[in-house]
Structures are given as C-alpha cells and as structure tokens.
C-alpha cells in the first residue's frame, strides 16, 4: 500500500451550510472569497467548503455568520479537498456523505426557527417554555429512557 502523505498539513476544512430565503450559497461563497486571503474556498450546492489554518477558517466563518446568523451552520469535514483516500477522482462512485447533508438540510429550518425564537428569551422565560428546570437536576433514569425509545417506534 502506498504511504499517505498529507497535502494540507496544519489545516482544517469546514462545510458552511445555508438554508435561507435571503442568503444563497453563492452569496456565502462570494463573501468568503472576498476575505479569503489565500484560504481555499469551494462553492457547493449547499454553501461552501473552506480549507485553511484554524485561525483563518474561524475568521471567515465568523464573518459569514453575520450575513444570516440563524440560518448558517458549520460542520467539520474529515478530509481535505482532493484527499486521495476520499476523493471521487481517485475512488469513483457516488459522493460519500452528501446523502447525510441532504438529510440534515431537511430539518435544519426547525433548528433555525428555534435559535431565533430562543435568542430573545430570558433564562426564566426559556425555563418556563421548556417546562422543566434547566439543566436537569438529576440524570435521566435508564428505564425512562428505554420507555421513551420504545414509544418512539
């Protein structure tokens, strides 16, 4: 087996997802390109992919989140772009992981709504809305958890 030699040592890769009626994936990618300063940006159908030093990637993500704070989500990517262990150019076949992204994007609007609604709540009103003390004072009993799982079926 050929030894693996990483191409992007010291970098991280993050996905930036957007699900917004006001901000498009192209808007996200364009804003990232404008402040990239040598960081690798790749526009995708769901937002963009950013590869660079952890500091540079964080700087860009912080800027992008200001565009639509409740509808932009970040996810770590395990492999850098073009990594021979994962790249379809080397392996062929379907895009691994994209079905997971598609599934996550199907419910992300509910998370966006929850983030926006809870932003303006005080701790007391959030506690009242939740109906239980936050955080839970005692751990959840394993029998109750098992019962909840069986009811879910």
TrEMBL record:
It holds the Pfam family DUF2102. InterPro entries: Methan_mark_6. This is Methanogenesis marker 6 protein. It comes from Methanocorpusculum parvum. The lineage of its organism: Archaea, Methanobacteriati, Methanobacteriota, Stenosarchaea group, Methanomicrobia.
């Amino acid at each position: 087996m050929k030894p693996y030699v990483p191409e992007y040592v010291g970098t991280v890769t993050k996905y930036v997802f957007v699900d917004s009626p006001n901000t498009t994936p192209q808007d996200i990618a364009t804003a990232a390109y404008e402040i990239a300063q040598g960081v690798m940006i790749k526009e995708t159908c769901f937002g963009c992919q950013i590869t660079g030093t952890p500091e540079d990637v964080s700087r860009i993500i912080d800027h992008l989140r200001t565009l639509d704070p409740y509808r932009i989500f970040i996810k770590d990517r395990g492999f850098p772009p073009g990594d021979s262990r994962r790249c379809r150019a080397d392996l062929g076949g379907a895009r691994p992981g994209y079905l997971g992204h598609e599934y996550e994007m199907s419910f992300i609007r509910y998370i966006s709504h929850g983030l926006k609604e809870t932003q303006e709540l005080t701790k007391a009103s959030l506690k009242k809305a939740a109906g239980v003390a936050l955080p839970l004072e005692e751990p959840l009993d394993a029998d109750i958890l098992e019962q909840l799982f069986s009811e879910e079926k």
